[in-house]
Amino acid sequence: MKSGYLEPKYRIEFIKSNYTGIKFFSFEPKGETKENYVQHDYKNIDAFLDSLAHRSNLLELSTKKKEQFLFRGHKNYSWVLEPSFYRKLRLGEENFINESFPIREMQLYYSFVEEANKLGIQVEFEALENAKGFNNNGIFDTQAHLDKLLKWPSKKDYRVLGLAQHYGVRTRLLDWTRNALTAVFFAATEAFNDIKPKEKITEDKKIGIWIIPEVIFHIARIVNIAELIEIPTHQNENIRAQDGLFSIHFFSMNNYDMSEDFYKNLVLSNYDLLKILYEKRDGVEDEYFNFITETDAIPRLLTLPYEMVPELILKLKRYNISWTRLIPSLEGVKKQVELELKLQSYS
């Protein structure tokens, strides 16, 4: 659990005064209210893009109040907002025993630190020293080191942790972007990889685009659930090109011991950001959640059927959204060439 001094933007008094009279959303079609978000199902690509692009009321509001919204795209609209490391655990796809999973998470990170250092990539001295100690003798796996385990990662780890996340290492981070069409592109291209020419697509298959007012993360920070982190773009051109940032997700336990139940509780906890945030309501003053209701800051999920994905990708290219733009390297060029070759089967 993160605690201590909170910057003014993470205090409810500042949040309420800064957003007085604001209404975050005004969408057509009208959405369906779910447990902790509102879902908008689109059947038309232009209407879908208009809700996110140059004619969007979101964009107009964002110019009045800078950096108002965060976006994340999923190829499967039913996916929840949970970090990849915990998603693998929940789905039973991690090949290690539950009792060691916090240590395994650190092992992945520290292995990345050591290997990145071999390439001459800048890593913090403290992280490299911890990596050598961890990989040599398995520190942090005893009761004496539990407090250190629960406080990991420190802010000094954020930059390299973000780098690891961006290159596919499973972490407790979630990727976000401030560019709505970037989120759409990632969701659409991942879905497109699952589509085969002439294959009948079932109606229940849809991509999903999450829209979260940034103030939601300020509240999540207040109640010790998660916080946003932005890392320097040095050594990571992709983050700059994608206008990317991350949320880091905390976990905490009331009884800090190394018993089997301790790890079982961690593994079985629900790491869905929105579910945790709303479940916290019992232990948090109602003013936070009254604020969400009064400003209509409830997160939104926009969906679009899979059958429209090929045309959607072609329209995104007209907005100059492509692999070459988002991964400005020969890797991006290669991915774009392969994508356009596959798209020819649908033209």
What does this structure look like?
The protein has 347 residues and is an alpha+beta fold. It folds into 2 domains: 204 residues, no CATH class; 82 residues, no CATH class. Helices cover 45% and strands 12% of the residues. It is built from 17 helices and 8 strands. The chain has a 5-stranded mixed β-sheet with strand order 1-2-8-5-3. A hairpin with a 4-residue loop joins strand 1 and strand 2. Helix 5 packs across helix 6. 32% of the residues are buried.
User: Mind summarizing the main beta sheet?
Assistant: 5 strands, mixed
How many beta strands in the DSSP annotation? 8
State the strand order across the main sheet. Answer: 1-2-8-5-3
For the terminal residues, how far apart are their CA atoms?
A: 52 Å
Secondary structural class: alpha+beta
Radius of gyration: 21 Å
How much of the sequence lies in strands comes to 5-15%
Helix content: 40-55%
How would you classify the quaternary structure? single chain
Average pLDDT taken over every residue: 77
Which residue ranges are poorly predicted, with pLDDT under 50 across at least 5 consecutive positions? 1-5, 95-99, 253-270
Number of alpha- plus pi-helical segments: 17
Shape: globular
Order of helices and strands: HEEHHEHHHHHEHEHEHEHHHEHHH
Count of discrete domains: 2
